[in-house]
Amino acid sequence: MRFLLRASRVLALLTNGVGKLAAWCLFPLMLVIVGDVVMRRYFAIGSIRLQEFEWHLHTVLFMLCLGYAYLCDAHVRIELVREGLGERARLFIEATGIVFLLLPLCWVMVDYSADLVSRSYAAGERSPHPSGLPHRWLIKAVMPVGYALLSLSALSILARSVVILFGTPEQRQAARLLVAPNKFEDEAATQGARP
C-alpha cells in the first residue's frame, strides 16, 4: 500500500505540474482573442494566422489540463446518484470506471492520435489557408500527450482508491489527503452537523 501511495503522489505531482504550467496559456489566449476582436471591430483587419493561433492555444490549454482537472475532481459527474452513495461505493465505482472505461479510452486515443500526428508530420500538413500556420502536426502532438496525462491522473486516483478501500486507517487517511485536502474534512463536518 505504501508503494501505491508513493506512486499516486508522484503521478499527481507530474500531472499537476503540467496542468498548472499549461494553465498559463490562458493569458496569451486572452490577449490573442482581445487583439483579434479589436483588430476586426475597429480596424476591419482579420488574420487567419491569429485565429489559428487562438485555437492552437485553446487546444494546448484544454488537452494538457484534462488530467489536472480530473485530479482536482473538477469534471462532470452524475451528482444525484453519486451523492446518495457511501464513500466505499463511490470509490468502488470510481475504480471500476477507471479500469474498464477511462484507461482503455485514453490508451485508444493515445494510439489513434499518435498515428494522426505521424501521418500529419509525414505529409508536411499545414493550414489549408495560404496565410495560416505551418506545421499542423505540432498542435496534433498535444492530443496524445493530453490523453497520456489523463491516464496518469487516472492511475493516481485508482491507486488512491485502492488504498482507501483496502489500506490501514493511517494509509486511508494519507490517501484521503492526497485526493483533496479539504474535501473529506468538509464532508465529515457536514455529516457531523446533521441531526
UniProtKB/TrEMBL annotation:
Pfam families found in the cross-reference section: DctQ
MF term (GO), any: transmembrane transporter activity
Superkingdom, natural source: Bacteria
Keyword annotations from UniProtKB, A to Z: Cell inner membrane, Cell membrane, Membrane, Transmembrane, Transmembrane helix, Transport
Keyword Membrane applies: yes
Signal sequence, renumbered to the chain: none
Residue stretches making up the Tripartite ATP-independent periplasmic transporters DctQ component domain: 29-161
Main location class: membrane
InterPro entries noted in UniProt: DctQ, TRAP_DctQ
Sequence similarity: Belongs to the TRAP transporter small permease family.
Subunit structure: The complex comprises the extracytoplasmic solute receptor protein and the two transmembrane proteins.
Function according to Swiss-Prot or TrEMBL: Part of the tripartite ATP-independent periplasmic (TRAP) transport system.
Identification of the protein by name: TRAP transporter small permease protein
Naturally occurring in which organism (per UniProt): Aurantimonas endophytica
